[in-house]
Specification:
The chain is mostly helical. It contains seven helices and three strands; from the N terminus they run E-E-H-H-H-H-H-H-E-H. It has a three-stranded antiparallel β-sheet. Strand 1 (7-12) and strand 2 (15-20) form a beta hairpin. The protein starts with 6 loop residues before the first strand and ends in a 14-residue tail after the last helix.
C-alpha cells in the first residue's frame, strides 16, 4: 500500500478521507474463507462430497494466507504479529472503558483473533483431510481432533463478529465494509501522521493509540 494516496470521503465531517489498507487478494481470501467455512460446517454427513471439496479449498486458502503473510502488502504481513500480541492484554483492558485507539491494520485483539482462527482452521482442515486417507481413516484421535476444532470455530467466529460490531460502534466506522472496499477512514487530526507512516518504510509495529485516535 506504499504510495497510496488518501481519498476524500463525505460520510462524516469528522472523518474526511480514506486510505487503502486491505489489498484485493486479502479481501477475496477473507470472504471466500468465510463462505467455505460455512459450507464445510453445514455439509458433513449430508453432502460429504461438497464437504470434502470445501475442506480442500480451505486448505488451499490457508496455504495462500501463510505465503501472503510474508510476501503481501504491508497490512497483510505477519511482521508485527509479536508486537500486537504483546499489546493485546492492555488493549482489551482499555476496551472495557471504551478506548480503542486508532489502527490502520488489525488492532491487537483482532490480531490475536486472527491467529486463533488460523490455528484452529489449520488443525481442523488438516485432520479432516487425514480422515479420508487409508492410514488415518477411523483413527480416533484424528476424528476427535477434527470434531473438537470444528465446534471450537463457532465461539471464535461469534467473538470475531461481536468484536467487529463493538469496535465499529466505538470508532464510528463500518469495519465490515472496510473489508469489502479495502479502505479505512482517517480523522483530520491523524491524516498527517498516517500519511507519513504510509510513505515511510520504517517500523511496522503497533500504532500508538494516543497518537492515532
Amino acid at each position: 500500500m506504499h504510495g497510496t494516496a488518501p481519498r476524500a470521503s463525505v460520510t462524516d465531517p469528522d472523518q474526511a478521507e480514506t486510505v487503502l489498507v486491505w489489498d484485493l487478494p486479502l479481501r477475496l481470501w477473507h470472504w471466500l474463507l468465510a463462505v467455505l467455512v460455512l459450507v464445510a460446517w453445514i455439509t458433513p454427513n449430508v453432502y460429504d462430497g461438497l464437504h470434502r471439496l470445501a475442506g480442500y479449498a480451505i486448505l488451499g486458502l490457508l496455504a495462500f494466507r501463510l505465503i501472503w503473510g510474508v510476501l503481501g502488502t504491508r497490512h497483510s504481513r505477519f511482521r508485527s504479529l509479536r508486537a500486537r500480541l504483546r499489546a493485546t492484554p492492555s488493549y482489551l483492558w482499555n476496551l472495557r472503558r471504551g478506548k480503542t485507539g486508532r489502527y490502520l491494520g488489525l488492532n491487537p485483539a483482532g490480531t490475536a483473533m486472527q491467529l486463533a482462527l488460523l490455528l484452529v482452521l489449520i488443525v481442523s482442515a488438516v485432520t479432516g483431510a487425514m480422515q479420508v486417507t487409508v492410514r488415518f481413516f477411523g483413527v480416533w484421535w484424528v476424528e476427535d481432533t477434527h470434531e473438537v476444532t470444528s465446534y471450537l470455530l463457532i465461539p471464535l467466529v461469534v467473538l470475531h463478529v461481536l468484536g467487529v460490531v463493538l469496535v465499529s460502534r466505538l470508532q464510528r466506522e463500518n469495519l465490515a465494509r472496510a473489508m469489502l472496499t479495502g479502505r479505512k477512514l482517517l480523522r483530520r487530526t491523524t491524516q498527517g501522521i498516517v500519511q507519513r507512516q504510509t510513505d515511510s518504510s520504517g517500523t511496522h509495529g503497533t500504532h500508538n493509540p494516543r497518537s492515532l485516535r
